Amino acid sequence: MHFKSLLFFFILMTIQSNAQLFDTGTKFTASDSLLKEASFSMHKDNYFLTGIPLNESTTRENADVKYQVSFKQRLSRKPIIGGFFPYLTYTQKAFWDIYASSKPFAEINFNPGVALVRPFYLKGKRLTYGSVSLEHESNGRDSIYSRTWNMLAFSLRSQVSPRWIVGLRGWLPIVDKEDNPNLTKYVGYGEASASYQILPGRLSADAVFRKGTGLINQGSLQTQVNYRPYKKENYYITLQWFVGYTESLIDYQEHKSMLRLGFVLKPENMSIF
């Protein structure tokens, strides 16, 4: 069976197999995990980082600022079908050449989407989110600089222990081949993520691995270490390393290795994907 079809089948069957995986005694508490946060809330990490390349000499042109703004809106306090809650999501990631003389924005990537999220508990009261989302990602430019694609994505994210959160996400890409020749080769068909609380509430580490369709060269790895200086404040000092392809859409075919330092705001609860 083709990898895309196999991944789609696995995730869909896992979300739907209530009788085998759901702890029926805690199903409503799982829904409360979404309802206890505000309907408008953070989606992914919100950060402001500055950094330099590790695979070439540092100049004013290749040192930059990278920042991300990400939020979500829950559309209902009750599930609409099969225990799924509807969401609108939006993430914007920017690359700012702040050290260049005119300080231009090299690239801005826009990622709106709609999602259905199903909270449940696996055996052992392990909180898990299953989601289905339809997303668009583009850089808002035209002509030869246009980069755009759409995806139908499926994900599972689970708190497998008090310190570990792991996730698996797959997508069926819909790509404009005129604007993005071979984009699928670099974005691949899925990613795996993990987060570990080294010192709960103070020090953590995250990793996201994406495999392209190439045998060796394509794909990416992003890792970061987060330190929370004040327990009562929700911001972290973060050291992030990205290596691989598709950090930005405009240069998706270029291999990058960037080390960045800055601040990140994290969702108070486990993110939905």
Task: Please describe the structure with a list of short key phrases separated by commas or semicolons.
mainly beta; twelve-stranded antiparallel β-barrel; about 270 residues; single chain; 13 strands; globular
Question: Would you write up a description of this structure?
Answer:
This protein has one domain (3-265): Outer membrane phospholipase (ompla), Chain C (Beta Barrel). It is globular and about 50 Å long. It is 12% helix and 49% strand. The protein has 273 residues and is mostly beta strands. Residues 1-28 have low confidence and may be disordered. It contains 4 helices and 13 strands. The chain has helices at 3-16, 18-21, 27-35, 183-187; strands spanning 40-42, 46-53, 64-74, 85-96, 105-122, 126-138, 148-158, 164-175, 190-199, 203-210, 220-227, 236-244, 256-265. The two termini are 26 Å apart. The longest helix has 14 residues, at 3-16. A 12-stranded antiparallel barrel has the order 2-3-4-5-6-7-8-9-10-11-12-13.
